[in-house]
Amino acid sequence: TGTIKVKARFNNQDDALFPNQFVNARMLVDTEQNAVVIPTAALQMGNEGHFVWVLNSENKVSKHLVTPGIQDSQKVVIRAGISAGDRVVTDGIDRLTEGAKVEVVEAQSATTPEEKATSREYAKKGARS
């Protein structure tokens, strides 16, 4: 199940944590340098394999076969097929065809500074992490 038992110490000045509490945690094992990262919503699977729709300077799309790497619920590392700075489509993907012109809309406004940074960084472009 991916469940492991760990012991940890945390500052608990506001008493939000209690003994034997069940928590979900993420552990940073390694950092992949210069990785191209896109939203998971942009990654698609077809007969040819994994692909993304990439926008050119005229906002026309083309299908790019990609090699995905590690991913979580929000983003995925792309090992090959696109470059940092490429704009990828994240919504309306099921209606796209090669060469279709699309309207680019800004990411919806986020509520926290962290969400705002994530929206800017991942909404339209592959980002380096």
TrEMBL record:
Domain of life of the native organism: Bacteria
Chief location of this protein within or outside the cell: membrane
GO CC annotation, single: efflux pump complex
Compositional bias (Basic and acidic residues): 113-129
Keywords assigned: Signal
Subcellular location: Cell inner membrane
Residue stretches making up the Multidrug resistance protein MdtA-like beta-barrel domain: 1-31
Segments for region (Disordered): 105-129
Keyword Oxidoreductase among UniProt keywords: no
Secreted listed as a keyword: no
Domain Multidrug resistance protein MdtA-like C-terminal permuted SH3: 34-95
Entry GO MF terms: efflux transmembrane transporter activity
Family of this protein: Belongs to the membrane fusion protein (MFP) (TC 8.A.1) family.
Protein known as: Multidrug efflux RND transporter subunit MdtA
Organism: Escherichia coli
UniProt gene name: mdtA
